[in-house]
Amino acid sequence: MPIRVNLDKVMKERQMSLSELAEKVGITLANLSILKTNKAKAVRFSTLEALCRELHCQPADILEFEEES
Question: Which of 22, 23, 51, 53 could form a disulfide with 32 if both were Cys (CB 3.0 to 4.6 A apart)?
Answer without folding.
Answer: 22
